[in-house]
Design brief:
This protein is of the alpha+beta class. It contains 8 helices and 15 strands. A hairpin with a 2-residue loop joins strand 10 and strand 11. Bound molecules: N-(5'-phosphopyridoxyl)-D-alanine.
């Protein structure tokens, strides 16, 4: 069934939606994005995603779309028009489509492009991988130096995902100067002696919205959180490992580079955090 998508002020059947070949998102990956999950027809962590969108735009000096203040309404409209109970909403803003290809930014007459579409995903919360855990491999982090900005330059992450698939794994953890930065599209954690360890915020990782919520819930539940970098060797010695993102919530990692983490089964800390995150987020959904 055809989806209704949003492009620059219009709701259109996906077959009729168009973006120019001169769009800077297409030619220069000059665009930023957000992915927000939908549970029970409600948007999860919506304010956090919109706050990060504004920050990404600001860091790149990218003009905000005129509809910036209407994004809640647009998200809700797409959820309603496409009957999304459980799934994801993808939003992308680019620096627009000037008359020609030029490395220099266009003038103020060129309006940013705004695109949103839904992805229905039944079983997002009831993911069987929550019970089995996922396997990751480690790869070199070859991305640029501003990973805190959520840009659409996703080729390194896509290549990493393919390397994982070829190795019979589900995802890859990226390593820079011997330390784990994050997963291809998620933040990475280990648990040792009850302590939750995840890389500190900086330009090296995306400031995950799910990460912020999960760490807040962990601290509220009196769990100890240490925000610092860790190595793959330390992860191999950990009791548990897991990832977080808007599309996976909290998912246990049971093997790294073919070596079991802890018992090789999903651990109690990841299971508890997943439960708290899903419960609390559903309650706070908008
Ligand atoms: N990815 N790190 C990277 C590199 C990511 O791409 C993502 C999200 C995260 C987690 O951020 P959040 O908790 O705000 O979703 C961390 C999204 C889901 C994607 O690209 O599909």
């Amino acid at each position: 069934m055809s989806r209704i998508v949003y492009v620059n002020g219009e709701y259109l059947p996906e077959e009729e939606a168009r973006v120019s070949v001169f769009d800077r998102g297409f030619l220069f990956a000059d665009g930023v994005y957000e992915v927000t999950s939908v549970l029970g027809g409600k948007l999860i962590d919506f304010d956090g995603h919109m706050k990060r969108l504004r920050r990404s735009l600001g860091e790149l000096d990218m003009p905000a779309p005129e509809a910036l203040d209407d994004l809640l309404e647009i998200h809700r409209e797409l959820v309603a028009r496409n009957g999304i109970e459980e799934g994801l909403i993808y939003l992308q803003v680019t620096r627009g489509a000037p008359a020609d290809r030029d490395f220099a930014f266009p003038g103020a007459d060129v309006k940013p492009t705004l695109v949103l579409f839904t992805q229905s995903k039944r079983g997002l919360a009831d993911n069987p991988q929550a019970a089995t855990g996922i396997k990751v491999i480690s790869i070199e982090d070859i991305r640029w130096g501003r990973r805190d900005i959520k840009t659409v330059q996703l080729l390194p992450s896509s290549l990493g995902k393919m390397m994982a698939k070829k190795a019979g794994a589900d995802d890859a953890w990226m390593v820079e100067d011997g330390q784990v930065t994050e997963g291809t599209s998620n933040n990475a954690y280990i648990v040792k002696g009850g302590k939750i360890i995840t890389r500190q915020l900086g330009n090296e990782i995306l400031h995950g919205i799910t990460r912020a919520a999960v760490l807040r819930f962990a601290r509220e539940a009196q769990m100890v959180v240490e925000e610092r970098a860790f190595t793959i060797a330390e992860a191999h010695e950990a009791d548990e490992a897991f990832i977080t993102s808007a599309s996976t919530f909290v998912l246990p990692v049971v093997s790294i580079d073919g070596q079991a983490v802890g018992t090789g089964k999903p651990g109690p800390v990841a299971a508890r955090l997943r439960e708290i995150y899903l419960d609390e987020s559903r309650k706070a959904g908008v």
